[in-house]
Amino acid sequence: MTEKDIISFQEQWGKGVIKIGEDFSSKKDYAKTAKEFVKNFYDFTKPLLFKPTLASETQFRTNFESALSYFIGNNELYSEDKGFALKCWNNVRWENKGIRIINNMAYAMGNYYFKDSSGQELKVEFSFVYILDDEKKLKIVLHDSHLPYNY
């Protein structure tokens, strides 16, 4: 696992979020795309530690269903979820403040920016922890993101 691997993984994650929105806009099977995205990027062998950006009622998500709901909504168990990926972002830009790698685990912290169709960017702070799974694929085990503090 290298810093380059982490950066590439982050870029692929961003493209995955964009693809869900594109499939939604094009009336394709965006739910299938989202399910594949969540399975490919997150590790569920133990409870996931996921604090999504725009969640306040059910702040912490620990399983596949709750993570999927955040990205596509339409789940009565998580009524606050409107589908973050369905906002149809057209770019995700990462600015890592730092990446640390320790054996088969890495963590990164910084800001990522989601650009919408009007060109506006939503700045989000993140901390992610990644592992290499049994198949030597990078997976997210901790995803903590939130809007910057504004007093």
Q: Give the helix proportion (percent range).
A: 25-40%
The CATH architecture category equals Roll
CATH first level: which class? Answer: Alpha Beta
Number of strands: 5
Give the neighbour order of strands across the main sheet.
1-5-4-3-2
* Binned strand content: 25-35%
- Output the structural class: alpha+beta
Tally of helical runs: 3
Q: How many individual domains?
A: 1
Biggest β-sheet description: 5 strands, mixed
N-end to C-end Cα span: 39 Å
Average per-residue pLDDT, rounded, comes to 95
Element pattern in H and E:
HHEHEEEE
The rounded Rg comes to 15 Å
Shape: globular
CATH topology value: Nuclear Transport Factor 2, Chain: A
Would you write up a description of this structure?
By secondary structure, the chain is α+β, with helices and mostly antiparallel strands. It has a single domain (3-146), classed as Nuclear Transport Factor 2, Chain: A (Roll), CATH 3.10.450.50. It is 29% helix and 31% strand. The chain has 3 helices and 5 strands; from the N terminus they run H-H-E-H-E-E-E-E. A 5-stranded mixed beta sheet has the order 1-5-4-3-2, with helices on one face. Helix 2 (30-41) crosses helix 3 (64-72). The protein is globular.
